[in-house]
């Protein structure tokens, strides 16, 4: 291990954690991956102060300077790609393909995207306004300019399901806009974020521009939110934690970007391509073992194709290899921890008690590579109703619930939309139908921040965020640059 191991990154220095260290555990092998530093409240506030001191000079750098640093950081992350992917896999339990492509690969891509983003225009000229003479002065023509300014110091609290792409999606656009950051990684897999900070430092990010403080104690996250020097909090995680963060931010009017829970409704109409729908909904099991807020975990299936859908999805699950994420062919790896496995299993048992039929899964998987590790068998709960807790609450594991709906013609659209919208969440929903015009018509009626029509794919320039309890604000693409900026109006007489 190098001399940065087990240390915080504050003000450009690797700092001994006053709270000691704690073990990061591989969810697949249950072996210790490394020692993560435990910050104290004071050290978190020190990091925010370092970011505050760095903000003035960094915000005045040219876009070209910021772009060059972000690009160099991407080069360095790519240089160490294999080692970074190996660490990400060890921390998160992701399969090899996911660790390489969806974690480190996407992280690198996001830094390159926001290196370009740093060069996007931040000024917009507005149409002149002719003012009559009055109490405000003489008649005249007023020009105006809308200017995007950096918010200031941004606390980035990241999720455990993707220790590269999620932090990159916050840090890179925040830096591109001229903000400085304090990153508080998820306690389960923080080591990758320190690698990211090291790459940024090597790339030339000035001291204090990027700071990383980790900890398993709740107090560490609270300090990162309530620090007086913090102007904005960007959080990805559960709705319950997001609500508590929002309350703290409200007291001092800190800006917020919240990407919270989801319970994606996947509407499958009678004319849908069932193989396509099954493959799309089956990604719930494959990606991060269901630990993804965008997953279509709530299948709403028209009665006419309900039995066929359940049969096809059951068969699909049968082809999913569960086990060691490092083994070739593994599709479903472990969940993040023993505690989370127990949580997911308790929901499956709850589903049984509520009257759902466990068509697949429901027991711990048996087979090579599952003797150790926190594995949950891909689970299908059929015969569900919308009032069941397993349908209404985010399980965040490899579990899909199936709810049938009826109706003919516009009637089936009405019932499907009503069921989909009967949720506290509204992140991403999905519609499968052979009638594309109908699919788009239904999509417009769904109270969700995004809707996939006959796909679970994403357009990475499209705004991302949720309605209702799924969050506040939007990021991705240029929308992330907007999220980490404030609008300033400059007005002058023509």
From TrEMBL:
<dbReference type="InterPro" id="IPR016163">
    <property type="entry name" value="Ald_DH_C"/>
</dbReference>
<dbReference type="GO" id="GO:0016620">
    <property type="term" value="F:oxidoreductase activity, acting on the aldehyde or oxo group of donors, NAD or NADP as acceptor"/>
</dbReference>
<dbReference type="InterPro" id="IPR015590">
    <property type="entry name" value="Aldehyde_DH_dom"/>
</dbReference>
<dbReference type="InterPro" id="IPR016161">
    <property type="entry name" value="Ald_DH/histidinol_DH"/>
</dbReference>
<keyword id="KW-0560">Oxidoreductase</keyword>
<comment type="similarity">
    <text>Belongs to the aldehyde dehydrogenase family.</text>
</comment>
<dbReference type="InterPro" id="IPR016162">
    <property type="entry name" value="Ald_DH_N"/>
</dbReference>
<dbReference type="Pfam" id="PF00171">
    <property type="entry name" value="Aldedh"/>
</dbReference>
<dbReference type="InterPro" id="IPR016160">
    <property type="entry name" value="Ald_DH_CS_CYS"/>
</dbReference>
<feature type="domain" description="Aldehyde dehydrogenase">
    <location>
        <begin position="14"/>
        <end position="490"/>
    </location>
</feature>
<protein>
    <submittedName>
        <fullName>Aldehyde dehydrogenase family protein</fullName>
    </submittedName>
</protein>
